Amino acid sequence: MQRTIGRDVGLISIVALVYLAASMLIENQYYQLMLTLIPVWAILGISWNVFSGYSGMVSFGHASFFGLGAYTVTLLFVQVDLSPWFGIPIGMVVGGIAGALIGWPTFRLRGHYFALAMLAYPLALLYIFEWLGYQEVSLPMKRASPAAFMQFQDYRWYVGIALVMLVAAMASSLKIERSRFGLSLLAIKQNEPAAEAAGINTRAWKMRAIMASGAIAAGVGGFYAVVLLIVTPPSVFGMLTSAQALIVTLFGGVATVWGPVVGAAILIPLSEVLNAELGDTIPGIQGVVFGVALVLVILLAPEGIVPHLREALRRRRGERAGSSPATVVSASVHQPPISTGHANRTVSTEVVLTVERISRAFGGLQAVEDVSFDVHKGEVLGIIGPNGAGKTTLFNVLNGFIPPNAGRVTWAHANLVGLRPNEICRRGIGRTFQVVRPFLRMTVLQNVVVGAFVAEPDDEKAIALARAALARVGMADRATVLAGRLTNVELRLMELARALASRPQLLLLDETLAGLGSQEVERMLSVIDALAKSGVTIVIIEHTMQAMVRLADRFVVLDHGRMLAHGKPEAVTKDPSVIEAYLGKRWMKHAQH
Amino acid sequence: MHGLIITENILQALVAGMLVGSVYGLMCVGLGLIYGVMRVINFAQGDFLMLGMYATFYLFGWLGLGQWLGPYLGPVVAALLGAVVLYGLGVFLHRTLLSRVTGMRVAGTESEGHYPQLILTLGMSLIIANGGLILFGSMPHNIRTPLSASAWEIGPLVGQELSVFLNKARSVACIVSGLVALGLYLFISRSRLGKTLRAAADNPEAATYMGINVDAAYRVAFALGIALTAIAGGLVATYYPFQPYVGLEFVIIMYAGVVLGGFGSIIGAFWGGLTIGLVQQLSTLVLPVQLQNAAIFVVFLLIVLVRPEGLFGRNAERV
What is the pTM of this model? Predict the structure, then answer.
């Protein structure tokens, strides 16, 4: 995302010019039409990719936008005599608005539900347009000034216009991919709750994506109507249109700029030629070819053609360069176990966060009941309690994942209850998760950059901020590694860096020490201690007492959702009710000695 | 007098809705079984329905079942035989294709392999529908028995004014669908294999530790799922003309029914399908014919948006 898109757009334009020059040599009008249709379906694929490819929310309904664009251009042409030169931009606006109208209710759904709901929109539109009496609308020929109405005797004009649109679509796609837009969508695709907690406004980005996608699809739909001169509901709203968008993209490669283009360049001519040669004798051959192409891609190169080739090329290049060290041994210096603790830390009695009478039940289970406590500026507050005590639920309430049934959380004079996680992150509260939630297919640096977006409106500065955060947790040397390759402790450090990159004043750490070996615990403790010394207030969940006694200034003890005790570690650990909760009544006698 | 006509129309629509709805219910059960066990949305389900129609059509004709067994039993036996053929096809397709993108191989991977599953079933759908066009041609077929155009009359009720007609072919289809769905319900809840399927659905990994072959369980679920939908297809074929692209007309009905019943609930899928049938037939009273299908989509959208856990189910998948 660091590179600018200038060079790539240059390359794309050169390819487009070569394509145009080649098309100039072709006289046959049928082949000229085919050369127009390749960019058309490539653009529809790009449109699908911009939304579904990057965000991972599969849309079966891109025909809605395509069809609305086609009908907008056609009806404006037929009814008010407006030229497609204006009709197409208006169609794009319609497509963008349709994206917002469809996205607004549908984004509440996830996974399969979202995909299926999207399927229903174009099919409903199809029947509505038929009912409105638009079964077959043709664009009248303009003999007087055809060019002003985007009508050309020579089809090569259409090839040119299609290519201009394609270059524009690819440039937008690149722009999105290389900016926080694309990275935010990728983060949403890989782990939506983590993206939300890292300060990404997931709903807003998804909305922007579907609007951009709808506009692109509608634009190309309008152009399609101009080229074919006739629009029918099944041809633009039909299943095959939505499927075509998916097919070229999935075949070429999801979430890549070139994927839809390569997919269209291979599949469209193949199916068109087969259809022309064999369509009379074998009528369904086109669909069969598409189907076989999809099945083969899944079996042989499930990630699509472009990523597959790229990977193959890289592997070959890697071999030639002589075995580059496959594993970089983590070079971060293990600091000697420092005397963590309460020395050198400036803890004031100033209250930064107030939790008042928070309760939350799941069905009949009272997970958190009437919990109140304060967090002091600069302290490390340990929240401890046995499994099922309600610790994580409490965190989920604090950072906005779960609304409480009752109670108030006050931070900087404002009530946090009712805010979404990204807004709470924006206000300076970061968090990590009990089960790490990394973006596995992004690099360590990209993971952390996602967290930095909220603190830095400028992308370059966000990257610098992310590097600084990585350095603070001792992971600077792992920046370019894919998160999927990290060890457990490294994942936890990376997650910590992601939370740090949002420049939080308060960090919520959920069992950051879970599953770590003793040396790794020391490493983590020293990092947390250094953070606390630098002035970050920390609330940390743990159920192992030993580590916590060394780290925390104060404890809050939860059991079965209720607050059992709070206060200095020495006092809390001697509290009989705490011992009972941890060890059971039988041990009370032993413990009191 | 006018009020009587309206009452008659409503009653007639209700009855027709029940009759087609029961068959819709059975096709939904097939799709719901596959989703419930494998967590795969089978895009090609409508095309398997279409194959069920053609299988029934040809078996009925070739074996001369009409002469042997008569118009009531003949098509039903043909549909059941067609289901056996589709079961075999399902086993084959799972073994060669689906098993590569489902089950233990993808458990725990990014998005649990939804993308590949989606693409694969979309590819299968395209191949089957268009392959069907090549094999069977685009001419609409139907299974002609004397039942298609005859009806039982209930009534006259309320003096001599009001009567309701039950189309015989639809009535047979309705009863058979209900029985098959009931049979599946008993099979899933009572039999050992049914329990295996539920275990594999509930937690594939834990099921593996219990000695259950999850891939084999998925294979049964997939093959059984398309066989059930194929039976429904064969029954529809006795009163509805079909061509190779007919699957698309029914696939939305199936999705709507399954979602309505609460994704993954098999008995819910049946009630969901039944409800869709009623909605479809009752909408004819107030909407123009062209908007009948749009009404189904609108109901479907409303359900997913307002109550994604379904009207009859409890398990939601919203987070």
Answer: 0.85
